[in-house]
Amino acid sequence: ERWVDRPRHIEIQVLADGHGNVVHLGERECSLQRRHQKIIEEAPSVLLDAGTRAAMGEAAVQAARSCGYEGAGTVEFIVPGSDPSSYYFMEMNTRLQVEHPVTELITGLDLVEWQLRVAAGEQLPYGQEDITLTGHAVEARICAEDPARGFLPSGGTVLALHEPQGDGVRTDSGLSEGTEVGSLYDPMLSKVIAYGPDRATALRKLRAALAETVTLGVQTNAGFLRRLLAHPAVVAGDLDTGLVEREAEELLAGSGDVPEEVYDAAAAVRLSSLAPA
After folding, report:
1. Residue 6 above 70 pLDDT?
2. At which of 116, 134, 152 does a domain end?
3. pTM
4. How sure is the predictor about 228, in pLDDT bands with cuts at 50, 70 and 90?
5. Which residue has the higher pLDDT, 229 or 260?
6. Span 134-157, mean pLDDT?
7. In a domain? residue 53
């Protein structure tokens, strides 16, 4: 097995019906990971040119077609940053993944809807030539964890909640004020997704949205994610699966000086003051 130095994790979204039709909906860049868990995802990838994107998409389509796959699925690849045309199959996830909203935003397709419609026996009404990718989308996973304490799980009662929406920003969440967050379940609380005509705009919108995100009473990684999105390598698109671990000390520097709850409380007060009377 070939050693890939500083690999990138890039996956292709596929959708297949029960009538022999299979399409891919472009790629997602999932290289920003901590302990092998994705924390930031974006679409499309800045690494791929049109030729490599088409080749990887066709490989994913053929993989799905070869096993008679039906529904939404993701074919994942390891991609050398220095030679993206030399990509390697890693696995296929036979489900709709956490990061699917970034694909929805750049394609205009509701993947949950089409997963259900395909399961009900409907035929896909579009072919590969009808799929277009427009703009750029980035997603951040908000988790109940304390970066200043080694990302230990956190919990508590959500005392105040503000989740940004609108103007190219979307939050997928199951939280409400009064929600009890414990340690018995997956720590992910919500996903904040930003869309723009280009990558720089999407990143800027996401950083601003994370600054507005308030989960007072429960420590989260929102501040850490804001700092990560502002890191020069991330801004430049120079990503790999080990970047977060290599830069963790710098990203965590000063994060424990002022508890995140203080920022959440200040943001909650500010947002309340701006609300119409």
Report:
1. yes
2. 134
3. 0.91
4. very high
5. 229
6. 96
7. yes
Is 45 part of a structural domain of the chain? Answer: yes
Structure tokens at 55: 């080749």
- Inside any domain, residue 86: yes
If you search the block for the tokens 């019906």, which residue do you land on? Answer: 17
Q: CB under 8 Å to 244, separation ≥6 — which residues?
A: 32, 33, 34, 39, 228, 251
Given a contact cutoff of 8 angstroms between Cβ atoms, the answer to whether 169 and 79 are in contact is no
Distance CA 92, CA 77 (A): 9
Q: How far is CA 92 from CA 22, 224, 263, in A?
A: 15, 30, 40
The domain that holds 122 is classified in CATH as 3.30.470.20
Task: Give me the domain span that covers residue 72.
Answer: 7-134
